[in-house]
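Title: Prediction job returns without error message
Component: structure pipeline
Severity: low
Priority: P3
Assignee: unassigned

Description:
Job completed but the reporter wants confirmation the result is attached to the right record. Sequence as submitted:
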Amino acid sequence: MSGINVRPNWRQASAITVAEIRWHLSTFGSEILTPDSLDLANLQARELARVVKHGPHRTVHHVVLDNGNFFWKHCRINGIRAFLRVCIRPPKARLEFDRAIALAQRGIATLEPLAWGVQCKFFGESHLITREIAGAVSLQQYLFDHFETESTPSPRRDLANLLGRFLARVHEAGAAHPDLHPGNILVTNDADGKPRFHLIDLHDILLGRSLSFRDSLENLVLINRWFIQRASRTDRLRFWIAYLKERGWDAREAACELERHTIRSNQAFWQGRFRRCLGTNRYFHRVCSIKANGFAVREFNGPTLQRFLDDPDFPFRDPACRLLKDSATSSVAEITVLTPNGPVVMIYKRFRLKKKLAALVNRFRMSPALRSWTFGHALRDRGLPTPRPWLVLHRRGWIGPREGYLLCEKVENAVAPNEVIETTSRWDLIEELARLIRRFHDAGLLHRDLKVANLLCTPEAPSGNRLHFIDLVGVTRVRRASESKQARNLSRLNASFLQSAQITRTDRLRFLRAYLQWGLRGQGGWEKWWSLIAEATQRKVERNKRSGRPLA
């Protein structure tokens, strides 16, 4: 879609310089903002401004004044790409100011801009001030607050219909948001208690004529990438019907096309983020010392991190740590780690070198610790439940990385799924497990060691959120999981349940029915899957008998 550059008449806005920032104020901004309220250092000294969001590229402050509250966004020039962008186009703050005014003129609810400014130097950093929307939260937070434990479908129906109509109006107004996700939509409640939406983060938004069907579909894929992992197909279809009705279109059959485009978009999105945890960015950073090096999440730093770097083995010598496992291949301990949010109970695993040349092999391929770290974040990107990894380390060696160490969050009150199946109603849990494995395979992942011992269950959690993947060393990525590879995964899982007397052939068929999505795709071909899994399971049993290894 071709964009147009919307520029308000700046002659109607006042301009002043405060603290080496040249400010341009809107009509409302000139009534509210004074030179004192445009001095951020002064506001911070008087404890009137606090940081609510911080990153390498921007910092957002919430400012509380007697005549109203507002948000102050400081846009930095972080890196060569940001520098080149500001060389050829206006600053981000001005772009967002212009587009907020343009959207308001087109009848789209958004932030009210009060002022934008740029530092008085060559290619200076920019600042944007917007009025606070009272009681507003992001759509993502709104969904977590209102629907995480929601049992009645009526509020979900209303929200899906209202969101569909809102985005239809946005597209009808000729606006296409290139980063359309729930974090960039604010929600407030009107006088009737119904949600009202506001579009934010507008500096890259495209404005032009009303979006065509193809442009609309392409833009909706962006927000559907988030909802396809968290909302039911019924709610997504309800959103689509409301959107079409508001636009006056009749294309319900295109819902399947939207889903296919979303799946392809998610695959490309996940592929691009796969190695993000192996670098320094806003989410992760490299860590190193004389003895060890690795990666950590951005918020994990300070003396606690330095202690791990100086001596990665210290938790296993600490009497206060609970040792869960100590074998020839690995050691696992439960420790309490001090984080910026307070003490957190975590699991710390040491991967020993199985062979003398393992350090040399680690130089040319991912070590088990690094695979667990990388795929832990890959699963979380895909919305699959697994403990969040905080730190991965390797001892330095002459020929390559030596012992590996992985620190991740602990799943509280978790037990093995077979223990829950033997003590409670198993049908719901079996179907939940089948749907989880289906999502795992649909996300382009396989697990060569997919067994019950590598899953955890939290019985007290709500249905649908009880199972978690652990021990991700055997996970691999594929462009598309073939039926034979999926059956091999399922046979490994099936073999791990052979010793459970509670699991019957009926339960296995129930699992297969949920995995193959009979209600959506029909029952055709299930006999072939049953045979493939049975044959692969038998081969696994015979292989373990020959090697003398028990089935785990």
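Comment from assignee: result matches the submitted record. The chain is about 40% helix and 20% strand.
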